[in-house]
């Protein structure tokens, strides 16, 4: 949106400057009309090139390569088991992992 406003302001500035400094138009040789047309085309090309050279705001970033996850390797089946043990004062329970 800022670029469009800037382009319109630039075009208005060129137009106001060319109108303010233009000499009295006479129909003798047609050189003034050609110069005005050429100046307008040049200003349009400059403004259009500036607008077209910037990337759009909705540009999608380039895809990023991500390595595949490692292959799943099934290890030995393990499970948590409640185990009773004697700690010197009495029987207690603890959970231990048992793999077959």
From TrEMBL:
Protein's recorded name: Uncharacterized protein
Keywords: Signal
Organism lineage: Bacteria, Pseudomonadati, Pseudomonadota, Alphaproteobacteria, Hyphomicrobiales
Superkingdom to which the source organism belongs: Bacteria
UniProt keyword annotation of Signal present: yes
First and last residue of the signal peptide: 1-27
């Amino acid at each position: 949106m800022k670029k469009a406003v800037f382009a319109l302001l630039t075009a208005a500035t060129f137009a106001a400057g060319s109108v303010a400094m233009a000499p009295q138009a006479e129909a003798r040789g047609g050189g003034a009309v050609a110069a005005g047309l050429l100046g307008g085309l040049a200003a349009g090309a400059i403004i259009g090139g500036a607008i077209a050279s910037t990337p759009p705001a909705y540009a999608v970033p380039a895809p990023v390569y991500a390595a595949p996850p490692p292959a799943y390797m099934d290890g030995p089946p393990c499970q948590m088991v409640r185990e009773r043990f004697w700690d010197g004062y009495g029987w207690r329970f603890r959970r231990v992992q048992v793999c077959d």
